[in-house]
UniProtKB/TrEMBL annotation:
Record's keyword terms, sorted: Membrane, Transmembrane, Transmembrane helix
Segments crossing the lipid bilayer: 29-48, 60-82, 88-105, 112-130, 136-156, 168-186, 198-217, 229-246, 252-271
Entry protein name: EamA domain-containing membrane protein RarD
Keyword Plastid: no
Length: 280
């Protein structure tokens, strides 16, 4: 899961580069990301001699639609409000997944993990809400935040689907339905890009697929709350990358919020494993 967060951060940087340096829209980067995902999954299935099987179709539809829409919103937010803010807003999804998982998936969430959720929420508040108050939050901020809500539901779908479907089938559903969402608006831009732009687009697709497969596979072995909290390492990494490579501002509130999130992630992971060891 930690490795997945690192690859997702690399993907975010590449999306920002594609938009800022080569003028490629979020629709096009999303399209290539989904197409590359489908191709890689099909190649893996052929190589493994294990055809894709879609068992729990209602949850696959849920994962595909919500997850695909969340990716499109995330990519668009990166191009409009920057890699740091877009990631932080989108990665509120651990809060939604953590709060919903006991009701939808019957996860047993220990008090210590609930404390970590509350602490992480406080850290996110420091980053999301500007010092001027909620009134300074723009519609782009709210759009990125809606992507976090969609991602929270998609993560719960992933966890549920591991009871019946493979990681490849789960990821294929996201890429397939995500491609349906973006294919029409992406055609406006065409495909006449310089070779270096295509290399960036292909890199986005490959890195995103690796990260998604890692994350999806990891959810076979950890519950939704722990996995979501570990994924919150991604906004911490992206805040730093945004500051270093794109000169995005990093306020004292952001630093404090990132620190709280990092501590919450670490504590939740250690607490969850400790309780599982006691049960064993």
């Amino acid at each position: 899961m930690i490795s997945s967060a690192i690859f997702f951060s690399l993907m975010s940087v590449l999306v920002r580069i594609a938009a800022e340096k080569y003028g490629i829209s979020a629709w096009k980067t999303s399209e290539i990301r989904f197409v590359m995902g489908i191709v890689i999954i099909l190649v893996l299935s052929i190589w493994m001699r294990d055809p894709l099987r879609f068992v729990n179709r209602p949850w696959l539809l849920s994962r595909g639609l919500f997850g695909g829409a969340a990716v499109c919103i995330y990519f668009y937010a990166i191009t409009q409000i920057g890699i740091a803010k877009a990631t932080i807003y989108t990665y509120t999804y651990p809060i939604w997944a953590g709060l919903l998982s006991p009701f939808l998936l019957k996860d047993q969430i220990r008090p210590g993990v609930w404390m970590a959720i509350l602490a992480a929420f406080g850290g996110l508040y420091l980053i999301i809400v500007p010092s001027q108050g909620l009134g300074a939050t723009s519609w782009l901020d709210l759009l990125a935040l809606s992507g976090g809500i969609l991602s929270g539901w998609a993560i719960l779908s992933v966890k549920k689907l591991h009871e019946t479907d493979t990681s490849r089938a789960i990821l294929f559903s996201q890429c397939f339905f995500g491609l349906i969402i973006v294919v029409a608006p992406a055609q406006v831009e065409g495909y006449s890009f310089p070779p270096v732009s295509w290399l960036t687009l292909l890199a986005i697709g490959i890195v995103a697929t690796i990260a998604q497969l890692q994350m999806t596979y990891a959810y076979k072995f950890i519950n939704a709350t722990e996995g979501s909290l570990l994924s919150m390492l991604n906004p911490v990494i992206n805040v730093l990358l945004g500051m270093i490579f794109f000169h995005e501002p990093l306020t004292l509130r952001s630093i404090l919020g990132c620190t709280i999130i990092l501590i919450s992630c670490t504590y939740a992971a250690m607490f969850q494993h400790a309780t599982e060891d006691v049960r064993r």
